[in-house]
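Training component of the fellowship. As part of building independent skills, the fellow (R.M.) carried out the full modelling exercise for a liganded target. The chosen ligand was YH5. The inputs are recorded below so that the supervisory panel can assess the work.
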Amino acid sequence: MSIPQRPALDCAGRFLDLSRPLVMGIVNTTPDSFSDGGALYRNGALDLERAFAHARALCEEGAAILDIGGESTRPGANPVSLQEEQDRVLPLVERVAAELDVVISVDTSSAAVMREAAALGAGLINDVRALTREGALEAAAGTGLPVCLMHMQGQPDTMQAAPRYADVVAEVRSFLAQRITACAAAGIDRRRLLLDPGFGFGKSVAHNFQLLDRLPELALEGLPLLVGLSRKSLIGKVLARDDPERPAGDRLPASLALAVLAVERGAAIVRAHDVAATVDALAMFAAMREWGRQ
Ligand code: YH5
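Fellow's submitted model of the complex:
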């Protein structure tokens, strides 16, 4: 039996074949980043050379997409000014577009950053606020780029305080459905959309695992799913339950397990810090799909 083929996703002239799971490598340019912890900074300023070297390394490890972001959205993070976000993100987008053969995703909620990054060569918009900020729908529509719509309950500074849902899967589905409708009204073709449940964004451990287990229900209208589970707090919480001594930094094996569980449930793109290891893990899934069922 043949599986219906999805047409490749046009990311500003570079095409993503979503018939096999792809890895989106994280390039975080914020100084307070949880895991890449300001490693791209020197004397308090973003070092463009270091950031570019990191981007190039992730490409060489097999990332199909690089997600470049300048706003910290981890739990408890403080808001960033537009100027600061532009200064962090735009020079790196320009440099990567000029020198690397990769789709650039810009991780932003700002209409101005969307427009400017697209003009410099970005191929995808990744908005954790699903184009709800002022002008974002219009800006994203104008770029012609694909857009990842993510669910979040609350705002980053307070979202993990007391996440509450009657039915987390139903609520995430209903939010995403509403954003698909808003995109359609703004002239964004459905075929340009990716959906993301937003693991860790206003969710308890139980909420996150319900969403993961029932991931297939989130693929509204058959749209491709993107997931971000790499190194997130839910891993630290689950592991701490079995072993309180376990250092929080040691999250790679668990991140790989979650990546495989997600693609097995239909995720098309996995957002990850550890690109080489994630590519290897997902290659086993692809091999099973290729050779397993004859
Ligand atoms: C996502 O899931 N996540 S930024 C806290 C951590 C580790 C990692 C406490 N942007 C997503 O990666 N975009 C982020 O440890 C995202 N989906 C999409 N589409 C948060 C992050 C992180 C937070």
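The panel noted the following from the submitted structure. Residues 34-35, 73-74, 107, 126, 128, 148, 150, 196, 198-200, 226, 228, 231-233, 271 surround YH5 (CB under 6 Å). The chain has a mean pLDDT of 94.
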